[in-house]
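tool_call: predict_structure(chain=1)
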Amino acid sequence: MAPPPPGPDGETQKQVKAESTEMASQRRPISNILFIIAMQTEALPLVDKFQLIEAPSSDSVFPEGVPWVRYSGKYKDLTISIVSPGKDAALGVDSVGTVSAALVTYASIQALKPDLIINAGTSGGFKAKGACIGDVFVASDVAFHDRRIPIPVFDLYGVGLKQACNTPNLLKELNLKVGKLSTGDSLDMSPHDEAAIIANDATVKDMEGAAVAYVADLLKVPVIFVKAVTDIVDGDKPTAEEFLQNLAAVTAALDLAVTQIVDYINGKSVSEL
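tool_result:
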C-alpha cells in the first residue's frame, strides 16, 4: 500500500485553520461591536443613544491605573462597547493620537473579543476633495502621513496603507459618502504632511484611524471608520478655532450616522455588509 501523501506542515496547517476561522466569522451574525472613540465629547452622545453603562473601576478588564474608559450594554441584538482612551493623568485633556489609540485598541480586542470594530470620531476635511463641515464619511482605506522613512520598502511600511472592512451594501442602503482617511499625530498640517496627504489621496484626516487599522489588521478583526468633518483643512480659517466651533454640532451628525449604521448592522454578518 502506498503511503499517504504528506500533509501540510505546521505553519500551513495554522494558516488554513486561521483562514477557515476567519471565513466562518464573516458568515456569522455580528453580535459584539467595539467602538474606539478618542474623545469623551464624541463618545457620550452614543453612550446615551445606546443606553450604555460605564464599567466601574472595580470591574475593569484593563490594567490597573490606565485612564481608559469603557461603556457597555445591549442594543437590539448587539452587545456594544465604547472604549475611550480617557483623560491624560497629568494634564486632564483627552488622550488623543496614535499611541493611545493603538494601545486601547489592542487591549480592547484582547479583553472583549469583538466581531467588528467601529472607529468613530471627528476629522478634518479637504474642500478640494468635496468635503464640507458636517459631512460624514466612511473610509475606504487608511494610511499615515507623518511616518516618513525614505528607504525602499520602509517607505511603504511608514505609510502603512490598510483597507477598511468592505461594506458595499451598507453604503448603498444608507447613501453614505466614501473617502480615504489619512492619519497623523498633529492637528495642524505641515508642508511635509500636506504632500503626504495628497499622495494618500485623502478626503479626511484624523489622529487615530491608521493606528486602529494597524492593530485590527494584526489581530484580524474587521474595522469600519466613520468620520465627521469639523474643519476644512485647506480652508481659510484656523484649524483649531474651526474644530472647537463646530465640534458639538458635528458630533450630533456623527451620532445620527453611527446610529443608522448600527441599526443596519443588527442581524447581519460581516459578509452581508
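agent: The chain has a mean pLDDT of 92. Proceeding to next step.
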